[in-house]
Amino acid sequence: MPRNSEVVRQWNLLRSIEAARAGLSIQQMVDEAGVTRRTVYRDLDALQEAGFPLTNEARDGRVFWTLADHPFKHLEQPGFSLSELCALYLSRRMVEVLTGVPFQAPLQALFGRFEHALPPRMRQYLDHLPSALAAMPPEGKVKRPPNYETHVAALLQAALDHRNAEMVYFSHLHQRAKTYAVQPYRIAYAHGGLYMFAFVPEYGQIRTFALQRVRRVKLLESRFQPSHELPEDPFEGSMGPNLGQPTVRVVLRFDAALAPVVRERVHHKSQRIDERPDGSIRMELDVCNDWWLHNWILGYGPLVTVEEPPDLVAAIVDELERARGQYGRSALDDGPVSPAMMQWGLQARLPFGS
Predict the structure, then answer these.
(1) For 303-314, what is each residue's pLDDT tens digit?
(2) Which CATH entry fits the domain spanning 4-67: 1.10.10.10, 3.30.300.330, 3.40.50.300, 3.10.580.10?
(3) pTM score, two decimals?
(4) What does the alpha-carbon distance between residue 104 and residue 93 come to, in Å, rounded to a whole number?
(5) Residues 105-126: pLDDT tens digits?
(6) Does CATH place domain 148-223 in 2.30.30.520?
């Protein structure tokens, strides 16, 4: 498989050929990509081997490469079955979870074409079906500040073109906005928001940025050569949107009352579960000891106990004590907890109890 940088370069080459109605010459591709003729030919071979319908023709003593106007005619001929059309139309509800991503407008245009082609009565019928399917991102959906879509589109373009960028970013930790010089690597969706992995020359490392906190973006003419290889799943070491390094061995014990709920989910791919004689379960995880891990553990209240590592035990105990300190004694003695709070079908997270 090609390296990420090669895939990005080939994707950009394909987009450029598609956008050029008269096609592109090899020299034009060389000038645009800033690579050698040999590299361009190798990229064209890779794209053709992948099945993209690239063709070339000689004009005015030069060879121009074009992309077939209708590369998917074999899909147009049989058309879509009714069930396939319904499935695609209903997927709107899932796509809407990703509001704000640069591909939302093309997807809306695609669904608009389907709506236009459907008879009014069929469209009215299909519009009722999504009520049976809903989607909600974990942790809710982030609020989109002004120019959010513009910032995301610019940074995505920078990641595709390997262009350096400057951005003004607001840090919750320091409660101030700071200008960063960044080399955008990848944008990922997680926990209801978009996050960017970018190399920051000032710190000499890859850092994670929440894109709703970007205040301003400026793309520079200069380009960078990626010097780091991100894992396929950049969040694999964390319980949330974090690169998650280094990882530690975490051991948790879940109460028997909570065990069925914990057991039925894969909370992290590293999890290992050991059933205990009293009905409780012991879980081992290899994850980063970060805010996302603390938040996940605290969400289970008194029905989970941290056994290892010692510094995580101390941190969770301290956070529980500080949370308890937010309430007066009278608030804790006001009465029993509402039954609804103890039903997992209605309330997934238990309150902190005494």
Answers:
(1) 999 999 999 999
(2) 1.10.10.10
(3) 0.65
(4) 12
(5) 666 777 777 777 766 776 666 6
(6) yes
